[in-house]
Amino acid sequence: MFHLTPRRGFALGALACAGLLGFGYFLQYARGLEPCPLCVLQRLAFLVTGVACLLGAVLGPGRLGTRLLAGLALLAATLGAGVAGRQVWLQSLPADQVPACGPGLDYMLETFPLSKTLTMVLRGSGECAENAWQFLGLGIAAWALVWFVLLGAWVGHLLLRPGMNPDRTSP
Fold this sequence. Notes:
mainly alpha; Bromodomain-like; two-stranded antiparallel sheet; 6 helices
């Protein structure tokens, strides 16, 4: 029987994030779908979530380490869900209410302070409202939102599950 240890749980989270990032790069390089600035932020959130899970899987941290890494992964997944939710909302706007296309992320990072760049990116732009790919009726941003919620629930489960945390005892 498969026993879910914190290390295995973190490993599954890391594998999911690696698969999601790999699929994003496949869509970019094999299918020619360039990521918008909000997509780049979502990739960053998947990366941070995945690295936190990978560290948890490789290091097998104790009680404090498990809490810190699961907390970091949960924070990254929550922020990623917020960004993905914003993009889903932008994609649902009528065409006349979609923000105008703005400069690229590279240009914004080179030209503006980080705080202004983040503000501009989170406002979204016309390119963030495009829905160029769908699977089962959901676009990339909607799938990212689904996966962020699943990953957040997963690492939250790792954090709170009895037997996963040395401070808690099994019933």
